[in-house]
Structure formats: structure tokens, C-alpha cells
Amino acid sequence: MLRSVRGTVQGMDRRARLAAGLFVLTAGLIIAFRSRLVVPAALLGALSFLALSFRWPLPMLVAEMFLSTSAFKFLGVESWPHLIPGLPLDPPDIMVLAFFAVGALKLLARREQPLFLGPLLLFGLAAALSAILAPALGTQTLYDSLNGLRQLSGYLFYIGVVGAIDSPGRLRWLVRILFAFVLVTVGIQVLEALRGQQFTTTAAPFNEYYAAQASISVGSLEAPYLWNRAIGYLVVGLFVALGQALWAGSTAGYAVALAALVGYGVQLIRQWYVFIALGGLVLLLLLRRNRLKVLLGLGALVLAAAVGLGAAAASGARLPLASLWLGRVGTLARFGQEPNFVIRVQSYLEELRLFVRAPLFGHGPGSANRLGAMGPFIFFDADTGMSNTLLQYGIVGTLAAWVLIGAYLRRAHQLYRTVAGPLAQGHAAGLLALGAVMVAGYLTSQDFITYIELAFATGLALALVDRLHAFAPREG
Questions:
Q1: Which residues pair with 222 in a beta bridge?
Q2: Of 291, 260, 294, nearest to 276 (Cα)?
Q3: Does 5 reside within a domain?
Q4: Among 258, 376, 417, 425, which one is most buried in terms of CB atoms within 10 A?
Q5: What secondary structure does DSSP assign to 38-62, as a single string?
Q6: Residue range 382-390: mean pLDDT, rounded
Q7: Residue 4 within a domain
């Protein structure tokens, strides 16, 4: 009883010191800035949010996940203003650093070490060497290197998530938040498909790649190109939901998985269909019970959809998106003749040609887009997989990336073999299948390691494996 009272008094004392400190700081800022009260008010709000996030971190988690998506690019925000002249720090950077700080402090308070700290430190060391050596070797400036390190902020996000999720209840909330992101972003895609155009604005200086409405065509059919605003979280949510559905029979899992598949269907990107099929095959191999039943059910679903689409087409009904989807899938049989495939191969070769100029530590963080815009084949760091890491971080950074991938696969497999209960087993199976998707994407056309949006998804996947290791029930 006495110990409980003493703990309560100490907690109140800490809160009183925090409140007094904030009051003194705010008063000092008001005196310093006088009429410009917006500055101290903003700082006070930020400090208060940071202090509250140490106690209730989930709102900051949601805010950070939102800021890590491509939503702002569609709203006319191509880049954020730098808060300190000469230093590449913008508001999203401050948010991820604050979330990292909250998570790190909570981990220190619990005396807990993140599961993937070792591989991440190794990869961080390789990235730091690349950032430092690039200016020395003349491949890019130090400012460009520091600016390019933003691409790896998803791994700071991992530390923040691990620190924030300190109980099984908060782990359940993390999964719910992930599912909510899937449902909201797919809902936006569906509304855009019904509208026939993406929601966007050109009110601010804007990257034309996002401002212009691109289209996809097969033969005489054409549809708007409507990609998901959180493509990384979409693939993580899909496989976590599939595992939850197939192992635990969860209605929510089936609903979220179906929504995610609708998002990919609207998006019409063929490479993702191959990755999803690979992940689905891994899930079927892991599913020891009712495998035949699930396989027959999936086959019946595909057959019913095909028959329905065929009947609708025969009746003369206009189904441009469905017909275009079937046409896009059909082009997979002759992928070598597709213009996008040819351009991507040319981009790979161009990246490898540039990689040879700086093979050990690469051209520096963030150099892919700059070099891609200068070369004969314009390439983007999202579309070239492992060659993107080779170009920026060299052999040393790429080997460190594979150490991280190997650690993820080993821990996910260990988790799947040792957890008890259908829900935890389903989540572990989904994360293991996701690992296969990440490897396939990294070897071909999706950089899950050093492209910012997919790196955040990788950070979330690492955190889910980490927290399941910490809180999932074990066999025996």
C-alpha cells in the first residue's frame, strides 16, 4: 500500500515538473517573440503532443503512418519547407524523429532491446559510410547525402512502433490501425474509379507525375491509372489479413483481404499480381489443415468471377475496368514484349552501369532519382529493386540489406513454428508470406529496403514480427 502511494506521488511529481517546465518555456518564448505568438504556441503544442505521446503513443503512430504515405503528393505538396536553412529537416522529418525518440525512451525505460537492432545497426553503418564517402569521392554533396538519408526513415519508425506497442492490447490496436489504412485508401481508389479520375490538385508547385491523370490501355480499352496512396501498408495489411482469415476464420480478416485485393484490381499493376500469387502460394504451403478446402474455394471463386465476366461480356454489357483487368493479366504471358518491361530492363542496365563507377559504397543516399533524371533512361527508385540499393549504397550496403532481410525471414519462420493459437499463427504465417513477397519484389522491381514508402512498410513488418515475438502465446 505504502509503495503504491509512493509511486503515485512520484508520478504526480514528475507530471508537475513537466507542467512547470512547459510553463517556463512557454513564458520565455512569449517574452522572446512578443507579438509573434504563433511561434511559441506552435512549439508549446508540439511539446505538449510529445509529452502526451509518451503516455498515449497511438495518435502519434497514426499521424506518422499518414505522413509516410503519398497522400500529400496528390494534394499539391511536392516537398515541405525546410525548418532550418541549410539543414534538410522538414515537418515529416521532425515527426518521425519525435516518434523515434518516444519509442527509444520507452524502450530504455523498459530496458528492452528491439529484435532487429543488430541488423539495423549494421545497415545504418553502411548507409552512414555511403553518406560520408560520397562527398569525399565527389559523387554528390554532403547536403544531398543528408537529404537522401530521409529514404531510410522507415527504420526509425520501426523503433518508434516497438517502443509504443508495449502490451498485447496495443498490438491488437496496431493491427486495427493497419486494417483501417487499407480500407480508407482502397475506398478512395473505388471512389476515383467511379469518378473516372483521381482526386488531386495542382494548387501548389507540383510534380506532374502525380498531377497529371495517367491512363492504362490494352487494345481499344482504356482506364485511369489509380494507384493506392499507401501501397506499402496495403501489401502488409493484405497478408496480415489473409493469415488472420485463413487460420482464425476471422470475418474482419476476410473483409480487409478482399478490400485490399479490390485495391490491387483497380490499380491494374501486373507485377503486384505476380507477387500476390507468390505470397498466396506460400500461405497455402503453410496451411496444414483444410488446405484442399481453401484451394477449392479460391478456385471456385476465380471460376465464378471468370464465368460472370464472360457472361457479362457476351451480353454486350460495358465493363471496361473488368475487361481491361483481364486484358492486362493476359499480357503476362508475353511480358518480354511489353514496353514497360523493356524500359525497366534498360533502367536496370543503366543503374548497373552507374554502379560500376562506385561499387563499394555507391553514389550516396538519394542519388538514384538525381542520376536517373540525367541518364538516357529515366528511372525511379521505386521501380528497380535491388539495383537501386547497389547504385546508392554499393556492395557493402546491399550486403547489409540482405542481412536484414535474412534476419526478418528467420525470425518470422521461428515465430510461425513456436506461437500458439490460430490468430497469432495466422499473423505469423501472413508475415512470413510477406517476406517472400518482399524478396521477390526486391530482386525484380520493388525496392522494399531503400525506397521511402516501402521502407516504412518494411519497418512496420519488422515491428509486427518483433511485437508478436514479445506478446504472442507460445506452445507448451
A1: 217
A2: 260
A3: no
A4: 425
A5: HHHHHHHHHHHHHHHHHHS-HHHHH
A6: 81
A7: no
List the domain range (segments joined by +) for residue 391.
56-471
Own/partner long-range contacts of 56-62 (Cβ < 8 Å, ≥24 apart): 57/99, 57/102, 57/103, 57/106, 57/160, 57/163, 57/164, 58/164, 58/170, 58/173, 58/177, 60/95, 60/98, 60/99, 60/102, 60/160, 60/164, 61/99, 61/160, 61/161, 61/164, 61/174, 61/177, 62/177
Q: What is the DSSP string of 292-360?
A: HHHHHHHHHHHHHHHHHHHHHHHTT---HHHHHHHHHHHGGGGGGG-HHHHHHHHHHHHHHHHHTTSTT
DSSP code per residue over 131-178: HHHHHHHTSS-HHHHHHHGGGGTHHHHHHHHHHH--SHHHHHHHHHHH
Assigned C-alpha cell, 299? 478456385
> pLDDT, tens digit, for every residue of 283-323?
988 987 667 766 765 666 566 655 655 555 555 444 455 55
Decide if 150 is inside a domain.
yes
Burial class (CB in 10 A: 0-12, 13-18, 19+), 260: buried
Strand partners, 187: none
Position 42 in a domain: no
pLDDT at 275: 92
Three cell numbers at 298?
A: 479460391
- Counting the structural domains of the chain, the total is 1
